[in-house]
Write a structure and sequence with these properties.
The complex is a heterodimer of chains A (about 475) and B (about 100).
Chain A (H helix, E strand, L loop, with lengths): L6 H19 L1 H5 L2 H17 L9 E2 L4 E2 L2 H24 L7 H20 L3 H19 L6 H32 L4 H9 L5 H18 L7 H8 L2 H26 L4 H23 L5 H22 L2 H32 L10 H4 L1 H15 L5 H15 L3 H26 L13 H19 L2 H14 L1
Antiparallel strand pairs in A: 1-2
Helix pairs in contact in A: 1-3, 1-5, 3-4, 3-5, 4-5, 4-11, 4-14, 5-6, 5-11, 6-7, 6-11, 7-9, 7-10, 8-11, 9-11, 9-12, 10-11, 10-13, 11-13, 11-14, 12-13, 12-18, 13-14, 13-17, 13-18, 14-16, 14-17, 14-19, 14-20, 16-18, 16-19, 17-18, 17-19
Chain B lengths: L3 H21 L3 H26 L5 H31 L13
Helix pairs in contact in B: 1-2, 2-3
Classes of the chains: A mainly alpha (about 475), B mainly alpha (about 100).
């Protein structure tokens, strides 16, 4: 028993419950923003505390079913950072939609706990519980705008589709259990390394791939993404795009780098097919979008495709490229969604056409959009370029030249549609000339995320060093 | 003599019925029932494997209990959202929920 391993999870849970209990004792607390400030302070102290936690492969909890290695700690810090941003974004966004803000802030903590459990799980029951805790909380948060028609519909689509995908995932897990008699990652991979391939392994791999692929929105399993992204409250969309996807990737990394390391010849062709589909469909459908949030949803599907190049490369450098890309993807996406939040607060809509003439109405917001979208497109002064460069070169090093060429071609398509959005923003005139009011907390989120995007882009050294150190400690 | 393969066959059949229900039913509540079929197929699988292959450890049964608990939460969450949509728009048919598309 080593309590320090679960200290971050315990902290997140207790702050979440504290916010709910305060809300029950003081009715005014539920309707005010105080819960949000409490949440942000709690998250900031968790983030600072997480840097003092010891991390190594020997830091385990309950029979090594729960590990706190460098990789887990890195992902937890990523999740906490995302949670800070989305809570700050929600402070002003929520006002027109609900009276009960307190519950919303508490729910973000439960989603955070689920993600952190996924990051540390070294066994499938724990992984499943973390996954479902995250998903259920996200469903509640997606359907949080009760009066909004889109929000409820998105919530229903999310719960039904995620329940189906977790049913498939569980069937795959039950086959895996039948084959090996174990459910912990180390035990299963040790049975596999004895070398008894059964055709059922292929089925188990396909089912696990589809269950986890749903969470990171790979293409045949991406159907929920645009609908849920559009219907959910905008800060929650940002949390889904950043947190839920990163949590899916840590599970993906642990399962495919660890459990199935013997069967690379079986899952690699499947993974390559899914990556090609994801890159093609994500980028091509994004061209036709008219809503900003749907547009960003398809762009996030495409980004899952780029990140999978790192998994396909299947090497230390590939893993470090994934970690680095997730870091910059967080800042770029938070910047873009904070921009959408400001747009929704001021105009009530989130169509791309609403951006027309934004340059004259709010130069500040336009600059934020410019930096974030250029980083997502991968254009040099921003971080996105360096992230894509690392991913593609590592894929080429491992002999996937054609795949890297396809990804490069698709990112040229991506540059086209990001620039189309930016053109709408910079040119044209709008009859509406009222300047934008951007609340202080939202402004701070935008400045920090855009600033970090530029800092990583201009001075990537320290960040790639961190990613490489963590990748080396894992593989 | 009833062996492991019988249980696995029943579970696979149940899973397929669940998938069929999920894919074809128009009523949201029927879809939730299909999901329950899928999850219970998994439970049968887990307990059968546990009984026939590794009877000394109860990991499979433990997992089944966790799945039952999570499935209950899943269904209550799904029904709650269906209910709130019904109050809002008076519909439970999935193919009529088409505000969000493309």
């Amino acid at each position: 028993m080593n309590i320090s391993v679960v200290s971050l999870e315990l902290a997140a849970l207790s702050i979440g419950f504290l916010i709910i209990i305060f809300g029950l004792i003081f009715p005014s607390f539920r309707s005010s923003k105080t819960g949000g400030y409490l949440a942000i302070i709690g998250l900031l102290s968790m983030l600072i505390g997480s840097f003092f936690l010891p991390a190594s492969n020997t830091q385990t909890f309950i029979n090594a079913f729960y590990v706190q290695d460098d990789l887990a700690l890195f992902f937890k810090q990523l999740f906490i950072l995302a949670a800070i941003f989305i809570n700050a974004m929600s402070l002003h966004y929520l006002k027109p939609y609900t009276k009960n803000k307190g519950d919303y802030f508490a729910l973000t903590f439960f989603a955070l706990t689920g993600m952190m459990v996924m990051a540390s799980a070294a066994e499938f029951i724990t992984l499943y519980i973390g996954l479902e805790l995250m998903t259920f909380t996200f469903v509640l948060l997606t359907a949080y705008k009760k009066q909004d028609l889109k929000s409820g519909e998105a919530g229903l689509k999310y719960i039904l589709l995620s329940a189906i995908s977790s049913g498939v995932l569980l069937y795959g897990l039950s086959l895996l259990y039948g084959l090996t008699g174990k459910l912990d990652f180390a035990g299963i991979s040790s049975v596999f390394s004895l070398g008894a391939t059964s055709p059922l392994v292929v089925w188990a791999i396909i089912m696990l791939l589809s269950g986890l692929g749903f969470k990171i929105a790979l293409v045949p399993f991406h159907m929920w993404t645009p609908d849920v992204y559009e219907g959910a409250p905008t800060p929650i969309t940002a949390f889904l795009a950043v947190g839920s996807k990163a949590a899916g990737f840590i599970a993906f990394i642990r399962v495919f780098f660890h459990v199935f390391s013997v069967y690379t010849s079986i899952f690699m062709p499947l993974l390559i097919t899914l990556t090609v589909l994801t890159l093609l469909i994500g980028n091509l459908i994004a061209l036709a979008q008219t809503h900003l949030k749907r547009f960003l949803a398809y762009s996030s599907i495409a980004h899952a495709g780029y990140i999978l190049l790192g998994v396909i490369a299947y090497s230390k450098l590939g893993l470090s490229a994934i970690l680095f890309y997730l870091m910059l993807y967080l800042f770029a996406n938070i910047g873009a969604f904070a921009g959408v939040t400001a747009l929704v607060i001021n105009t009530g809509h989130d169509r791309i056409a609403d951006l027309t003439g934004l340059w004259k109405r709010s130069p500040f917001l336009s600059v934020i959009f410019l930096i974030s979208l250029l980083s997502l497109a991968g254009i040099p002064p921003t971080a996105g370029f360096i992230g894509k460069f690392y991913l593609f070169t590592e894929a080429i090093h491992q002999g996937y030249l054609w795949l890297a060429a396809l990804a490069l071609g698709m990112s040229l398509v991506a540059i086209y549609y990001y620039l189309m959005v930016l053109r709408t923003l910079l040119s044209g005139t709008n009859e509406e000339t009222k300047s934008f009011i951007i609340p202080f907390s939202l402004r701070l989120v935008m400045i920090v995320s855009a600033g970090m995007t530029l800092v990583i882009g201009i001075w990537p050294g320290p960040f790639t060093d961190i990613a490489l150190r963590i990748a080396q400690s894992f593989l | 003599m009833i062996g492991l393969s019988h249980y696995l066959f029943v579970a696979a059949a149940l899973f397929c019925i669940g998938v069929y229900g999920v894919l074809t039913k128009k009523n949201a509540i029927a879809v939730v029932m299909g999901i329950e079929f899928m999850l219970n197929a998994v439970n049968i699988n887990l307990i059968a494997f546990n009984h026939f292959m590794a009877p000394n450890h109860v990991i499979g049964q433990l997992f089944a209990i966790f799945i039952i608990g999570v499935a209950a939460a899943e269904v209550s969450l799904g029904l709650a959202i269906i209910l709130s949509l019904y109050r809002q728009r008076h519909l439970v048919a999935i193919d009529e929920m088409d505000i969000l598309k493309w």
